[in-house]
């Protein structure tokens, strides 16, 4: 049950044409021997519901001196947009980063979110460019590409009360010097990776996931790419409701959600307003005294013990209006 999301891996990833690239026995896209550059173009991904925006994400392995670049285009009313680039990605903070000013009459790309200008698109196509500086070095590898979209005709919200609580180690972002107030995304990612047994400091994750083009730490696609470089399978997911989050929680998977509030009173218990957006970890669901709550590890805290919180579901749903999450699994 993965609504509003297309995940391409193994055989599904290989459908297209390549130049100086191929797929290894693990169905990973790689450069041919002796080649320093190559590209792969997918077949047209059609038969999708109409969508008004999308986020692309990928899982790769990029050693030093290697890069991958994902480019996408969308079709609206039978006309294709330009190719939009997610910038050159490489592990451990070596990415060149996202590219500003990508826009045409059909769509525009704002860091990680591609928006259809008016109406809706109904098809996607992507290209993957692989590069290595030395022909004899290991090739970059790509094993998964995913797209999550907002449907033009959205389903009604639904939720049945439930009791789920995952034990997720708390991690506060604010004690980190200099950048503590702008690293909610990598802090949440570090939290979830630690839950799965992979320990890195918040500073390490922030440095690795940083989008050097935009100078930010909250590029959703780059946070996913960083988790994948460390061995996780990960993607950006667009949900219909908290029922979809419940699906992952029941598998023992905490998820990272994006919220936005203009005033802290809109979400009782929040430490501040988040007009530019904020990310936190959903760890469970509960109902107490006739009220449904979302259990979270909210990294916006000065001490780890203040990170676990509960927010009223009705208020949380309004703050979580875009209904997007990161899914990170072993």
Query: How far apart are the termini?
Result: 18 Å
Strand segment count:
21
What would you report as the Rg, rounded to the nearest angstrom? 20 Å
Are there runs of 5+ residues with pLDDT below 50, and where? Answer: none
Which fold does the CATH topology of the largest domain refer to? Cathepsin B, Chain A
Order of helices and strands: EEEEEEEEEEEEEEEHHHEHEEEEHE
Roughly what is the average pLDDT, rounded to an integer?
97
The backbone outline, from C-alpha atoms, is: globular
Largest sheet: 7 strands, antiparallel
How many helical elements?
5
CATH architecture of the largest domain: Alpha-Beta Complex
Label the structural class. mainly beta
| Count of discrete structural domains | 2
**Which class of the largest domain in CATH terms?**
Alpha Beta
Strand content: 35-45%
Write a short abstract of this structure.
The protein has 330 residues and is mostly beta strands.
How would you describe what is shown here?
The protein has 330 residues and is mainly beta. The chain folds into two domains: 5-151, Sandwich (Jelly Rolls); 164-329, Cathepsin B, Chain A (Alpha-Beta Complex). The protein is 14% helix and 39% strand. It contains five helices and 21 strands. It has helices at 184-195, 202-209, 220-229, 242-249, 313-319, and strands spanning 5-9, 16-19, 21-23, 29-31, 37-42, 51-61, 66-76, 79-80, 84-89, 102-103, 107-110, 113-116, 123-132, 141-151, 164-165, 233-238, 255-261, 274-288, 291-297, 308-312, 324-329. The strands form four sheets. Strands 15, 16, 17, 18, 19, 20 and 21 form a seven-stranded antiparallel beta sheet that branches. The protein has a six-stranded antiparallel beta sheet with strand order 1-14-6-12-11-10. Strands 2, 5, 7, 8, 9 and 13 form a six-stranded antiparallel beta sheet that branches. The protein is globular, with a radius of gyration of 20 Å. The model has no long low-confidence stretch (mean pLDDT 97).
């Amino acid at each position: 049950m993965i609504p509003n999301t297309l995940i391409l891996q193994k055989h599904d990833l290989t459908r297209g044409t390549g130049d100086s690239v191929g797929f290894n026995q693990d169905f990973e896209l790689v450069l041919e021997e002796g080649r320093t550059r190559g590209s792969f173009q997918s077949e047209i991904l059609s038969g999708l519901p109409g969508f008004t925006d999308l986020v692309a994400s990928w899982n790769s392995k990029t050693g030093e001196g290697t890069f991958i670049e994902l480019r996408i285009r969308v079709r609206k009313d039978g006309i294709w947009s330009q190719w939009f680039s997610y910038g050159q990605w490489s592990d451990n903070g070596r990415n060149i980063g996202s590219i500003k000013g990508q826009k045409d009459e059909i769509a525009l790309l704002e860091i990680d979110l591609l928006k259809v200008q008016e109406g809706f698109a109904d098809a996607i196509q992507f290209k993957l460019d692989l590069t290595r500086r030395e022909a004899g070095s290991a090739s970059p590898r790509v094993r998964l590409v995913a797209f999550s979209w907002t449907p033009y005709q959205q389903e009604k919200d639904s939720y049945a009360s439930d009791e789920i609580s995952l034990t997720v180690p708390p991690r506060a972002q604010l004690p980190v010097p200099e950048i503590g107030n702008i690293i909610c995304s990598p802090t949440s990612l570090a939290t979830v990776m630690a839950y799965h047994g992979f320990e890195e400091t918040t500073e390490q994750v922030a440095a690795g996931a940083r989008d050097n083009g935009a100078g930010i730490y909250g590029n959703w696609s780059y946070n996913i790419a960083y988790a994948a470089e460390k061995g996780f399978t990960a993607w950006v997911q667009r949900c219909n409701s908290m029922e979809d989050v419940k699906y992952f929680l029941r598998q023992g998977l905490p998820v990272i959600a994006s919220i936005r509030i203009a005033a802290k009173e809109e979400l009782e218990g929040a430490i501040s307003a988040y007009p530019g957006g904020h990310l936190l970890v959903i760890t469970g669901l509960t109902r107490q005294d006739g009220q449904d709550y979302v259990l979270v590890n909210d990294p916006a805290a000065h001490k780890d013990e203040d990170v676990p919180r509960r927010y009223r579901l009705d208020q949380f749903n309004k703050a979580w209006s875009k209904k997007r999450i990161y899914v990170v699994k072993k």
